[in-house]
Amino acid sequence: ASASGTVWPYAARADLTVKADGLDLAPLGPYLDGAAPVRLAEGKLGLAARTTVDAGKAVPAWTFAGDVRLDGFSLRHPSREEELVRWRSLEIAGVDAASAKARASVKSVRLADPLVRAIVFEDGTTGLEAKPAKAAGQAPAATPAGPAWRTSIGALQVVRGKATFTDRSVKPPVLLSLTDVEAKVASLSSDPRVRSTVDVRAKVDGVAPLTVTGTVNPLQAIAYTDLVVAAKGIDLTPLDPYSGKHVGYALAKGKLDLDLAYKVEQKELRGGNVIRVDQLTLGEATHSKDATSLPVRLALALLKDRSGVILLDVPVEGRTDDPEFRLGKVVWRAVLNVVVKVATSPFSALAALAGGGEEDISLVEFAPGSARLEDAARKRIELLAKSLAQRPGLSLELEPAVDAKADALALKRAELDRRLRRAKAASMRRPPAEDAIDALEIAADERPRLVAAVYAAAFPQGAKPAAGAAPPAPAEEEARLLEAMPLRPEDVPSLLAARQAAARDALVAAGLEPARLFTVQGGERATKEAGARVYFTVR
To answer: Which residues contact 225 (CB under 8 A, 6 or more apart)?
Structure first.
Protein backbone atom coordinates (compact mmCIF):
# COMPACT_ATOMS: atom_id res chain seq x y z
CA ALA A 1 0.00 0.00 0.00
CA SER A 2 1.25 3.49 -0.76
CA ALA A 3 0.05 7.10 -0.64
CA SER A 4 1.87 10.00 -2.24
CA GLY A 5 0.97 13.61 -2.87
CA THR A 6 0.51 16.89 -1.03
CA VAL A 7 -0.91 17.45 2.43
CA TRP A 8 -1.81 20.82 4.04
CA PRO A 9 -1.93 19.82 7.72
CA TYR A 10 -3.15 23.13 9.14
CA ALA A 11 -5.78 23.55 6.40
CA ALA A 12 -6.94 19.93 6.80
CA ARG A 13 -6.51 19.32 3.08
CA ALA A 14 -4.87 16.60 1.04
CA ASP A 15 -4.37 15.65 -2.60
CA LEU A 16 -3.10 12.07 -2.78
CA THR A 17 -2.49 9.22 -5.16
CA VAL A 18 -3.37 6.03 -3.32
CA LYS A 19 -2.39 2.52 -4.34
CA ALA A 20 -2.87 -0.92 -2.79
CA ASP A 21 -2.30 -4.43 -4.04
CA GLY A 22 -3.62 -7.47 -2.19
CA LEU A 23 -4.30 -5.56 1.01
CA ASP A 24 -5.70 -8.08 3.52
CA LEU A 25 -9.07 -6.95 4.90
CA ALA A 26 -9.61 -9.86 7.30
CA PRO A 27 -8.11 -7.96 10.28
CA LEU A 28 -10.89 -5.38 9.82
CA GLY A 29 -13.53 -8.09 10.34
CA PRO A 30 -14.25 -7.20 13.99
CA TYR A 31 -15.65 -3.84 12.83
CA LEU A 32 -18.60 -5.80 11.39
CA ASP A 33 -19.24 -7.74 14.58
CA GLY A 34 -22.56 -6.66 16.04
CA ALA A 35 -23.12 -4.22 13.19
CA ALA A 36 -23.89 -6.76 10.43
CA PRO A 37 -25.43 -10.24 10.38
CA VAL A 38 -22.30 -11.66 8.71
CA ARG A 39 -18.60 -12.00 9.49
CA LEU A 40 -15.85 -10.93 7.11
CA ALA A 41 -13.62 -13.97 6.66
CA GLU A 42 -11.40 -13.07 3.70
CA GLY A 43 -10.79 -10.28 1.24
CA LYS A 44 -7.92 -8.66 -0.65
CA LEU A 45 -8.24 -4.99 -1.62
CA GLY A 46 -6.66 -3.51 -4.72
CA LEU A 47 -6.73 0.23 -5.32
CA ALA A 48 -5.36 2.78 -7.76
CA ALA A 49 -6.94 6.19 -7.36
CA ARG A 50 -6.49 9.90 -6.84
CA THR A 51 -8.38 11.40 -3.95
CA THR A 52 -8.72 14.85 -2.42
CA VAL A 53 -10.01 15.82 1.00
CA ASP A 54 -10.90 19.28 2.24
CA ALA A 55 -12.03 19.14 5.85
CA GLY A 56 -11.39 22.79 6.54
CA LYS A 57 -14.65 24.02 5.03
CA ALA A 58 -17.95 24.31 6.84
CA VAL A 59 -19.08 21.27 4.87
CA PRO A 60 -16.17 18.87 4.35
CA ALA A 61 -15.62 17.87 0.74
CA TRP A 62 -13.84 15.04 -1.02
CA THR A 63 -13.26 13.56 -4.47
CA PHE A 64 -12.29 10.08 -5.60
CA ALA A 65 -11.27 8.94 -9.09
CA GLY A 66 -9.76 5.60 -10.02
CA ASP A 67 -10.22 1.83 -9.94
CA VAL A 68 -11.02 -0.57 -7.09
CA ARG A 69 -10.91 -4.34 -6.91
CA LEU A 70 -11.80 -6.82 -4.21
CA ASP A 71 -10.52 -10.37 -4.67
CA GLY A 72 -10.96 -13.61 -2.76
CA PHE A 73 -13.86 -12.14 -0.79
CA SER A 74 -15.76 -14.30 1.72
CA LEU A 75 -18.55 -13.63 4.24
CA ARG A 76 -19.53 -16.22 6.81
CA HIS A 77 -22.35 -16.76 9.25
CA PRO A 78 -21.39 -15.00 12.49
CA SER A 79 -21.80 -18.08 14.70
CA ARG A 80 -22.21 -21.20 12.53
CA GLU A 81 -18.99 -20.79 10.54
CA GLU A 82 -20.73 -21.46 7.22
CA GLU A 83 -19.79 -19.49 4.16
CA LEU A 84 -22.67 -17.41 2.80
CA VAL A 85 -21.05 -15.21 0.13
CA ARG A 86 -17.89 -15.68 -1.87
CA TRP A 87 -16.43 -14.39 -5.12
CA ARG A 88 -13.14 -14.67 -6.96
CA SER A 89 -12.91 -11.05 -8.08
CA LEU A 90 -14.86 -7.82 -8.12
CA GLU A 91 -13.51 -5.13 -10.45
CA ILE A 92 -14.89 -1.60 -10.23
CA ALA A 93 -13.37 0.50 -13.00
CA GLY A 94 -13.60 4.21 -13.74
CA VAL A 95 -14.93 5.46 -10.41
CA ASP A 96 -15.51 9.24 -10.39
CA ALA A 97 -17.19 10.70 -7.30
CA ALA A 98 -17.32 14.11 -5.66
CA SER A 99 -19.19 15.04 -2.49
CA ALA A 100 -19.54 18.71 -3.34
CA LYS A 101 -21.34 17.92 -6.58
CA ALA A 102 -23.19 14.96 -5.04
CA ARG A 103 -22.31 12.68 -7.93
CA ALA A 104 -20.81 9.24 -8.34
CA SER A 105 -20.27 7.39 -11.58
CA VAL A 106 -18.68 4.07 -12.46
CA LYS A 107 -17.73 2.96 -15.95
CA SER A 108 -18.00 -0.76 -15.30
CA VAL A 109 -18.43 -3.39 -12.61
CA ARG A 110 -17.40 -6.99 -13.20
CA LEU A 111 -18.10 -9.75 -10.66
CA ALA A 112 -16.45 -13.09 -11.41
CA ASP A 113 -17.30 -16.51 -9.96
CA PRO A 114 -19.68 -15.32 -7.24
CA LEU A 115 -21.40 -17.82 -4.94
CA VAL A 116 -24.37 -16.94 -2.73
CA ARG A 117 -25.67 -19.51 -0.25
CA ALA A 118 -29.07 -19.11 1.45
CA ILE A 119 -29.59 -21.47 4.37
CA VAL A 120 -32.63 -22.18 6.53
CA PHE A 121 -31.40 -23.96 9.64
CA GLU A 122 -33.03 -26.78 11.59
CA ASP A 123 -34.89 -24.36 13.85
CA GLY A 124 -36.44 -22.54 10.88
CA THR A 125 -34.22 -19.46 11.16
CA THR A 126 -31.57 -18.13 8.80
CA GLY A 127 -29.52 -16.47 11.50
CA LEU A 128 -29.53 -13.29 9.41
CA GLU A 129 -32.65 -11.63 10.80
CA ALA A 130 -32.41 -7.90 11.18
CA LYS A 131 -31.44 -6.72 14.61
CA PRO A 132 -34.12 -4.92 16.64
CA ALA A 133 -34.18 -1.16 16.39
CA LYS A 134 -32.78 0.87 19.23
CA ALA A 135 -35.17 1.90 21.96
CA ALA A 136 -36.63 5.38 21.97
CA GLY A 137 -34.23 7.97 23.31
CA GLN A 138 -31.20 6.08 21.95
CA ALA A 139 -31.67 7.03 18.31
CA PRO A 140 -28.91 9.25 16.93
CA ALA A 141 -29.69 12.85 16.19
CA ALA A 142 -31.03 13.35 12.71
CA THR A 143 -28.69 14.99 10.26
CA PRO A 144 -29.97 17.48 7.72
CA ALA A 145 -30.63 15.92 4.34
CA GLY A 146 -28.14 16.85 1.67
CA PRO A 147 -28.70 17.11 -2.07
CA ALA A 148 -29.85 13.99 -3.87
CA TRP A 149 -26.90 12.12 -5.33
CA ARG A 150 -26.61 11.61 -9.07
CA THR A 151 -25.31 8.11 -9.64
CA SER A 152 -24.62 5.95 -12.67
CA ILE A 153 -22.95 2.69 -13.64
CA GLY A 154 -22.12 2.21 -17.30
CA ALA A 155 -22.17 -1.59 -17.28
CA LEU A 156 -22.57 -4.32 -14.68
CA GLN A 157 -21.51 -7.85 -15.49
CA VAL A 158 -21.68 -11.12 -13.56
CA VAL A 159 -19.83 -14.14 -14.94
CA ARG A 160 -19.98 -17.77 -13.88
CA GLY A 161 -22.26 -17.05 -10.96
CA LYS A 162 -23.89 -19.60 -8.70
CA ALA A 163 -26.53 -19.50 -5.96
CA THR A 164 -27.69 -22.31 -3.71
CA PHE A 165 -30.60 -22.72 -1.34
CA THR A 166 -30.64 -25.23 1.49
CA ASP A 167 -33.57 -25.75 3.84
CA ARG A 168 -32.67 -27.97 6.78
CA SER A 169 -35.95 -27.33 8.58
CA VAL A 170 -37.49 -30.22 6.61
CA LYS A 171 -36.29 -33.79 6.33
CA PRO A 172 -34.67 -34.67 4.08
CA PRO A 173 -33.30 -31.16 3.42
CA VAL A 174 -34.35 -29.25 0.31
CA LEU A 175 -31.42 -28.49 -2.01
CA LEU A 176 -31.78 -26.11 -4.96
CA SER A 177 -29.19 -24.38 -7.09
CA LEU A 178 -28.83 -21.74 -9.79
CA THR A 179 -25.71 -22.27 -11.88
CA ASP A 180 -23.97 -20.80 -14.93
CA VAL A 181 -25.27 -17.34 -14.09
CA GLU A 182 -24.29 -14.77 -16.71
CA ALA A 183 -25.76 -11.30 -16.22
CA LYS A 184 -25.41 -7.97 -18.01
CA VAL A 185 -27.00 -4.71 -16.92
CA ALA A 186 -26.35 -1.57 -18.97
CA SER A 187 -26.82 2.11 -18.18
CA LEU A 188 -27.78 2.10 -14.53
CA SER A 189 -28.60 5.67 -13.58
CA SER A 190 -30.49 7.81 -11.11
CA ASP A 191 -31.67 9.93 -14.05
CA PRO A 192 -35.39 9.10 -14.48
CA ARG A 193 -35.00 9.48 -18.24
CA VAL A 194 -32.59 6.55 -18.39
CA ARG A 195 -33.74 2.95 -18.66
CA SER A 196 -31.37 0.16 -17.73
CA THR A 197 -31.41 -2.98 -19.84
CA VAL A 198 -31.12 -6.36 -18.13
CA ASP A 199 -30.09 -9.70 -19.61
CA VAL A 200 -29.62 -12.63 -17.22
CA ARG A 201 -29.01 -16.24 -18.27
CA ALA A 202 -28.77 -19.13 -15.82
CA LYS A 203 -29.60 -22.80 -15.29
CA VAL A 204 -31.77 -24.21 -12.53
CA ASP A 205 -30.02 -27.18 -10.93
CA GLY A 206 -27.54 -27.13 -13.81
CA VAL A 207 -30.13 -28.14 -16.44
CA ALA A 208 -33.26 -26.00 -16.87
CA PRO A 209 -32.61 -22.69 -18.67
CA LEU A 210 -33.73 -19.48 -16.97
CA THR A 211 -33.71 -15.99 -18.52
CA VAL A 212 -34.53 -12.55 -17.17
CA THR A 213 -34.75 -9.71 -19.68
CA GLY A 214 -36.17 -6.21 -19.73
CA THR A 215 -35.56 -2.75 -18.31
CA VAL A 216 -35.05 -1.51 -14.74
CA ASN A 217 -33.74 1.54 -12.92
CA PRO A 218 -32.96 0.53 -9.31
CA LEU A 219 -30.87 3.67 -8.71
CA GLN A 220 -33.89 5.94 -9.14
CA ALA A 221 -36.07 7.21 -6.32
CA ILE A 222 -39.24 5.95 -7.99
CA ALA A 223 -38.29 2.63 -9.52
CA TYR A 224 -39.41 1.54 -12.95
CA THR A 225 -39.34 -2.13 -13.84
CA ASP A 226 -40.43 -4.01 -16.93
CA LEU A 227 -39.08 -7.55 -16.74
CA VAL A 228 -39.84 -10.87 -18.39
CA VAL A 229 -38.79 -14.09 -16.64
CA ALA A 230 -38.82 -17.37 -18.54
CA ALA A 231 -37.81 -20.86 -17.46
CA LYS A 232 -38.38 -24.24 -19.02
CA GLY A 233 -38.21 -27.78 -17.68
CA ILE A 234 -37.47 -27.13 -14.00
CA ASP A 235 -37.49 -30.48 -12.21
CA LEU A 236 -39.87 -30.37 -9.24
CA THR A 237 -38.70 -33.51 -7.46
CA PRO A 238 -36.14 -31.60 -5.31
CA LEU A 239 -39.22 -30.04 -3.66
CA ASP A 240 -40.42 -33.47 -2.51
CA PRO A 241 -39.73 -32.70 1.20
CA TYR A 242 -42.03 -29.66 0.99
CA SER A 243 -44.70 -31.71 -0.75
CA GLY A 244 -44.53 -34.41 1.90
CA LYS A 245 -44.79 -31.90 4.73
CA HIS A 246 -47.31 -29.36 3.42
CA VAL A 247 -49.26 -31.28 0.77
CA GLY A 248 -49.33 -34.61 2.56
CA TYR A 249 -48.05 -36.67 -0.37
CA ALA A 250 -44.65 -37.49 -1.76
CA LEU A 251 -43.79 -35.87 -5.10
CA ALA A 252 -43.06 -38.56 -7.66
CA LYS A 253 -42.37 -36.43 -10.72
CA GLY A 254 -43.16 -33.19 -12.48
CA LYS A 255 -41.59 -30.34 -14.43
CA LEU A 256 -42.25 -26.62 -14.34
CA ASP A 257 -42.24 -23.95 -17.06
CA LEU A 258 -42.52 -20.26 -16.16
CA ASP A 259 -43.47 -17.27 -18.25
CA LEU A 260 -43.63 -14.27 -15.95
CA ALA A 261 -43.95 -10.57 -16.74
CA TYR A 262 -43.78 -7.79 -14.17
CA LYS A 263 -44.15 -4.05 -14.63
CA VAL A 264 -43.68 -1.49 -11.85
CA GLU A 265 -44.49 2.14 -12.54
CA GLN A 266 -45.06 4.83 -9.94
CA LYS A 267 -44.82 2.08 -7.28
CA GLU A 268 -47.77 0.25 -8.84
CA LEU A 269 -47.11 -3.40 -9.71
CA ARG A 270 -48.93 -5.27 -12.42
CA GLY A 271 -47.79 -8.75 -13.29
CA GLY A 272 -48.76 -11.85 -15.14
CA ASN A 273 -47.73 -15.36 -14.21
CA VAL A 274 -48.23 -18.12 -16.74
CA ILE A 275 -47.27 -21.32 -14.95
CA ARG A 276 -47.14 -24.65 -16.74
CA VAL A 277 -46.68 -27.88 -14.79
CA ASP A 278 -46.17 -31.07 -16.78
CA GLN A 279 -46.89 -34.59 -15.49
CA LEU A 280 -47.11 -33.58 -11.84
CA THR A 281 -47.59 -36.86 -10.01
CA LEU A 282 -48.07 -37.42 -6.30
CA GLY A 283 -46.78 -40.50 -4.54
CA GLU A 284 -47.69 -42.13 -1.25
CA ALA A 285 -49.40 -40.25 1.58
CA THR A 286 -46.99 -39.00 4.25
CA HIS A 287 -49.62 -38.37 6.97
CA SER A 288 -47.83 -35.14 7.88
CA LYS A 289 -49.43 -33.18 10.71
CA ASP A 290 -48.63 -29.98 8.78
CA ALA A 291 -50.39 -31.11 5.60
CA THR A 292 -53.26 -29.08 4.15
CA SER A 293 -56.82 -30.33 4.57
CA LEU A 294 -57.65 -29.50 0.94
CA PRO A 295 -58.43 -32.40 -1.42
CA VAL A 296 -55.11 -32.04 -3.22
CA ARG A 297 -55.45 -35.04 -5.53
CA LEU A 298 -58.87 -33.83 -6.65
CA ALA A 299 -57.51 -30.32 -7.30
CA LEU A 300 -54.69 -31.72 -9.43
CA ALA A 301 -57.06 -33.93 -11.40
CA LEU A 302 -59.28 -30.90 -12.05
CA LEU A 303 -56.34 -28.80 -13.20
CA LYS A 304 -54.69 -31.40 -15.44
CA ASP A 305 -55.70 -31.55 -19.09
CA ARG A 306 -55.75 -34.67 -21.28
CA SER A 307 -51.98 -34.42 -21.75
CA GLY A 308 -51.26 -34.23 -18.01
CA VAL A 309 -50.47 -30.51 -18.14
CA ILE A 310 -51.59 -27.93 -15.59
CA LEU A 311 -51.73 -24.42 -17.04
CA LEU A 312 -52.32 -21.48 -14.71
CA ASP A 313 -52.58 -17.84 -15.78
CA VAL A 314 -52.41 -15.85 -12.55
CA PRO A 315 -52.32 -12.04 -12.68
CA VAL A 316 -51.06 -10.12 -9.64
CA GLU A 317 -51.04 -6.48 -8.63
CA GLY A 318 -50.12 -4.37 -5.64
CA ARG A 319 -48.10 -1.42 -4.42
CA THR A 320 -44.42 -1.81 -3.74
CA ASP A 321 -44.54 0.82 -0.98
CA ASP A 322 -46.96 -1.32 1.04
CA PRO A 323 -45.05 -2.53 4.13
CA GLU A 324 -46.68 -5.95 3.74
CA PHE A 325 -45.76 -6.27 0.07
CA ARG A 326 -43.55 -9.20 -0.84
CA LEU A 327 -43.60 -10.32 -4.46
CA GLY A 328 -43.08 -13.98 -3.66
CA LYS A 329 -45.87 -13.90 -1.10
CA VAL A 330 -48.23 -12.12 -3.53
CA VAL A 331 -47.61 -14.62 -6.32
CA TRP A 332 -47.85 -17.64 -4.02
CA ARG A 333 -51.10 -16.36 -2.52
CA ALA A 334 -52.58 -15.82 -5.99
CA VAL A 335 -51.62 -19.34 -7.11
CA LEU A 336 -52.90 -20.85 -3.86
CA ASN A 337 -56.21 -19.03 -4.26
CA VAL A 338 -56.65 -20.67 -7.67
CA VAL A 339 -55.97 -24.13 -6.23
CA VAL A 340 -58.29 -23.53 -3.25
CA LYS A 341 -61.08 -22.31 -5.53
CA VAL A 342 -60.73 -25.34 -7.78
CA ALA A 343 -60.60 -27.77 -4.85
CA THR A 344 -63.60 -26.29 -3.03
CA SER A 345 -65.73 -25.51 -6.11
CA PRO A 346 -64.85 -28.28 -8.58
CA PHE A 347 -68.00 -27.95 -10.68
CA SER A 348 -67.44 -24.22 -11.22
CA ALA A 349 -64.02 -25.10 -12.62
CA LEU A 350 -65.52 -27.82 -14.82
CA ALA A 351 -68.25 -25.50 -16.08
CA ALA A 352 -65.61 -22.93 -17.03
CA LEU A 353 -63.74 -25.60 -19.00
CA ALA A 354 -66.83 -26.33 -21.07
CA GLY A 355 -67.77 -22.67 -21.50
CA GLY A 356 -70.77 -23.06 -19.21
CA GLY A 357 -70.23 -19.82 -17.30
CA GLU A 358 -72.22 -19.82 -14.08
CA GLU A 359 -74.19 -22.95 -14.97
CA ASP A 360 -74.52 -25.32 -12.00
CA ILE A 361 -73.53 -28.72 -13.37
CA SER A 362 -73.26 -30.40 -9.96
CA LEU A 363 -76.82 -31.79 -10.25
CA VAL A 364 -79.79 -32.30 -12.53
CA GLU A 365 -83.40 -31.78 -11.50
CA PHE A 366 -86.57 -33.74 -12.30
CA ALA A 367 -90.25 -33.00 -12.15
CA PRO A 368 -91.90 -34.49 -9.02
CA GLY A 369 -92.48 -38.21 -9.43
CA SER A 370 -90.67 -38.25 -12.78
CA ALA A 371 -87.38 -39.70 -14.04
CA ARG A 372 -87.51 -37.93 -17.40
CA LEU A 373 -84.77 -35.41 -18.13
CA GLU A 374 -85.98 -32.03 -19.31
CA ASP A 375 -84.06 -29.97 -21.88
CA ALA A 376 -82.33 -27.85 -19.21
CA ALA A 377 -81.11 -30.97 -17.42
CA ARG A 378 -79.80 -32.46 -20.65
CA LYS A 379 -77.88 -29.25 -21.34
CA ARG A 380 -76.20 -29.51 -17.93
CA ILE A 381 -75.26 -33.13 -18.57
CA GLU A 382 -73.77 -32.26 -21.96
CA LEU A 383 -71.67 -29.50 -20.36
CA LEU A 384 -70.53 -31.87 -17.61
CA ALA A 385 -69.58 -34.60 -20.09
CA LYS A 386 -67.73 -32.09 -22.27
CA SER A 387 -65.68 -30.79 -19.33
CA LEU A 388 -64.93 -34.27 -17.96
CA ALA A 389 -63.68 -35.30 -21.39
CA GLN A 390 -60.89 -32.75 -20.86
CA ARG A 391 -60.07 -34.10 -17.40
CA PRO A 392 -59.56 -37.86 -17.84
CA GLY A 393 -58.19 -38.25 -14.33
CA LEU A 394 -61.63 -37.66 -12.80
CA SER A 395 -64.43 -40.12 -12.11
CA LEU A 396 -68.04 -39.17 -11.41
CA GLU A 397 -70.42 -40.39 -8.72
CA LEU A 398 -74.19 -40.27 -9.34
CA GLU A 399 -76.35 -39.97 -6.25
CA PRO A 400 -80.16 -39.91 -6.79
CA ALA A 401 -82.51 -38.25 -4.32
CA VAL A 402 -86.24 -37.68 -3.78
CA ASP A 403 -88.32 -34.89 -2.33
CA ALA A 404 -90.25 -36.53 0.51
CA LYS A 405 -93.38 -34.45 -0.01
CA ALA A 406 -93.48 -33.51 -3.69
CA ASP A 407 -92.35 -36.90 -5.01
CA ALA A 408 -94.66 -38.81 -2.66
CA LEU A 409 -97.64 -36.74 -3.76
CA ALA A 410 -96.73 -37.18 -7.43
CA LEU A 411 -96.38 -40.95 -6.98
CA LYS A 412 -99.77 -41.12 -5.26
CA ARG A 413 -101.31 -39.06 -8.05
CA ALA A 414 -99.82 -41.44 -10.62
CA GLU A 415 -101.30 -44.42 -8.74
CA LEU A 416 -104.69 -42.68 -8.62
CA ASP A 417 -104.54 -42.06 -12.38
CA ARG A 418 -103.70 -45.74 -12.88
CA ARG A 419 -106.78 -46.73 -10.87
CA LEU A 420 -108.94 -44.29 -12.82
CA ARG A 421 -107.79 -45.85 -16.10
CA ARG A 422 -108.61 -49.32 -14.73
CA ALA A 423 -112.04 -48.08 -13.66
CA LYS A 424 -112.60 -46.74 -17.16
CA ALA A 425 -111.46 -50.01 -18.70
CA ALA A 426 -113.87 -51.94 -16.45
CA SER A 427 -116.80 -49.74 -17.57
CA MET A 428 -116.10 -50.19 -21.27
CA ARG A 429 -118.21 -52.67 -23.30
CA ARG A 430 -115.00 -53.99 -24.82
CA PRO A 431 -112.26 -53.64 -22.21
CA PRO A 432 -108.79 -53.17 -23.74
CA ALA A 433 -106.00 -55.65 -23.27
CA GLU A 434 -104.05 -55.47 -20.03
CA ASP A 435 -101.01 -53.91 -21.66
CA ALA A 436 -103.16 -51.21 -23.27
CA ILE A 437 -104.87 -49.97 -20.10
CA ASP A 438 -102.06 -47.57 -19.20
CA ALA A 439 -102.47 -45.89 -22.60
CA LEU A 440 -106.10 -44.92 -21.93
CA GLU A 441 -106.78 -41.20 -21.68
CA ILE A 442 -109.14 -39.70 -19.08
CA ALA A 443 -111.28 -36.88 -20.48
CA ALA A 444 -112.12 -33.99 -18.18
CA ASP A 445 -115.86 -34.62 -18.35
CA GLU A 446 -115.53 -38.29 -17.36
CA ARG A 447 -113.05 -37.79 -14.53
CA PRO A 448 -115.68 -36.99 -11.81
CA ARG A 449 -117.54 -40.24 -12.59
CA LEU A 450 -114.39 -42.32 -12.47
CA VAL A 451 -113.20 -40.63 -9.26
CA ALA A 452 -116.57 -41.43 -7.67
CA ALA A 453 -116.22 -45.07 -8.71
CA VAL A 454 -112.70 -45.37 -7.27
CA TYR A 455 -113.80 -43.50 -4.16
CA ALA A 456 -116.71 -45.91 -3.62
CA ALA A 457 -114.38 -48.86 -3.94
CA ALA A 458 -111.86 -47.37 -1.56
CA PHE A 459 -114.38 -46.14 1.05
CA PRO A 460 -117.47 -48.41 0.80
CA GLN A 461 -118.83 -47.23 4.14
CA GLY A 462 -118.38 -43.54 3.38
CA ALA A 463 -119.48 -43.57 -0.23
CA LYS A 464 -123.12 -43.02 0.74
CA PRO A 465 -123.71 -39.70 2.53
CA ALA A 466 -125.80 -39.57 5.68
CA ALA A 467 -129.48 -38.65 5.41
CA GLY A 468 -129.81 -34.98 4.54
CA ALA A 469 -126.03 -34.59 3.91
CA ALA A 470 -124.71 -33.47 0.54
CA PRO A 471 -122.43 -35.93 -1.23
CA PRO A 472 -118.75 -34.92 -1.31
CA ALA A 473 -117.63 -32.99 -4.34
CA PRO A 474 -115.30 -34.77 -6.81
CA ALA A 475 -112.37 -32.58 -5.68
CA GLU A 476 -112.96 -33.61 -2.06
CA GLU A 477 -113.15 -37.26 -3.05
CA GLU A 478 -109.92 -36.97 -5.01
CA ALA A 479 -108.15 -35.20 -2.13
CA ARG A 480 -109.17 -37.92 0.32
CA LEU A 481 -108.12 -40.63 -2.09
CA LEU A 482 -104.67 -39.03 -2.46
CA GLU A 483 -104.29 -38.65 1.29
CA ALA A 484 -105.15 -42.31 1.92
CA MET A 485 -103.31 -43.71 -1.09
CA PRO A 486 -100.50 -46.00 0.13
CA LEU A 487 -97.08 -46.03 -1.53
CA ARG A 488 -95.85 -49.42 -2.59
CA PRO A 489 -92.52 -50.45 -1.01
CA GLU A 490 -90.85 -50.38 -4.42
CA ASP A 491 -92.14 -46.95 -5.54
CA VAL A 492 -89.38 -44.75 -4.07
CA PRO A 493 -86.48 -47.17 -4.81
CA SER A 494 -87.76 -47.54 -8.37
CA LEU A 495 -87.91 -43.76 -8.81
CA LEU A 496 -84.36 -43.39 -7.44
CA ALA A 497 -83.03 -46.09 -9.77
CA ALA A 498 -84.85 -44.60 -12.76
CA ARG A 499 -83.42 -41.13 -12.14
CA GLN A 500 -79.92 -42.51 -11.71
CA ALA A 501 -80.26 -44.55 -14.90
CA ALA A 502 -81.58 -41.54 -16.83
CA ALA A 503 -78.60 -39.39 -15.78
CA ARG A 504 -76.12 -42.21 -16.46
CA ASP A 505 -77.52 -42.97 -19.90
CA ALA A 506 -77.47 -39.27 -20.84
CA LEU A 507 -73.82 -38.95 -19.76
CA VAL A 508 -72.83 -42.02 -21.77
CA ALA A 509 -74.77 -40.71 -24.77
CA ALA A 510 -72.81 -37.44 -24.41
CA GLY A 511 -69.55 -39.36 -24.78
CA LEU A 512 -68.47 -40.16 -21.23
CA GLU A 513 -66.97 -43.60 -20.64
CA PRO A 514 -69.20 -45.86 -18.47
CA ALA A 515 -66.11 -46.99 -16.51
CA ARG A 516 -65.78 -43.47 -15.09
CA LEU A 517 -69.34 -43.49 -13.67
CA PHE A 518 -70.14 -44.81 -10.21
CA THR A 519 -73.56 -45.06 -8.57
CA VAL A 520 -74.10 -44.10 -4.95
CA GLN A 521 -77.19 -44.87 -2.85
CA GLY A 522 -78.13 -42.97 0.30
CA GLY A 523 -75.11 -40.68 0.18
CA GLU A 524 -74.50 -37.54 2.21
CA ARG A 525 -75.84 -35.04 -0.31
CA ALA A 526 -79.06 -36.97 -0.92
CA THR A 527 -79.60 -37.25 2.82
CA LYS A 528 -78.88 -33.62 3.71
CA GLU A 529 -80.10 -31.72 0.64
CA ALA A 530 -82.74 -34.11 -0.78
CA GLY A 531 -84.83 -32.82 -3.68
CA ALA A 532 -86.05 -34.37 -6.92
CA ARG A 533 -82.51 -34.58 -8.28
CA VAL A 534 -79.44 -36.57 -9.14
CA TYR A 535 -76.33 -35.14 -7.46
CA PHE A 536 -72.87 -35.44 -9.00
CA THR A 537 -69.56 -35.73 -7.15
CA VAL A 538 -66.13 -35.77 -8.80
CA ARG A 539 -63.40 -38.01 -7.41
So the answer is: 214, 215, 216, 217, 262, 263, 264
Strand (E) or helix (H) holding 198: strand 196-204
* Residue 121 CB contacts under 8 Å (≥ 6 apart), including other chains: 80, 127, 168, 169
**DSSP strands (E only) in 224-324:** 225-235, 249-265, 268-285, 309-319
What's the CA gap between 135 and 327, in Å, rounded?
30
Residue 465, pLDDT above cutoff 60:
no
Convert the pLDDT of each residue in 25-45 to its tens digit: 999 888 877 777 888 999 999
Give the distance, in angstroms, between the CA of residue 190 and the centroid of all CA atoms in the same chain.
36
Query: How far apart are the C-alpha atoms of 211 and 292, rounded to whole Å?
Result: 33
From CA 411, how far away is CA 366, in angstroms rounded? 13
Nearest to 282 by CA among 301, 257, 309: 301
How far apart are alpha carbons 392 and 398 in whole angstroms? 17
At 48, the pLDDT band (50, 70, 90 cuts) reads: very high
pLDDT of residue 138: 56
pLDDT in tens, 362-376: 999 999 999 999 999
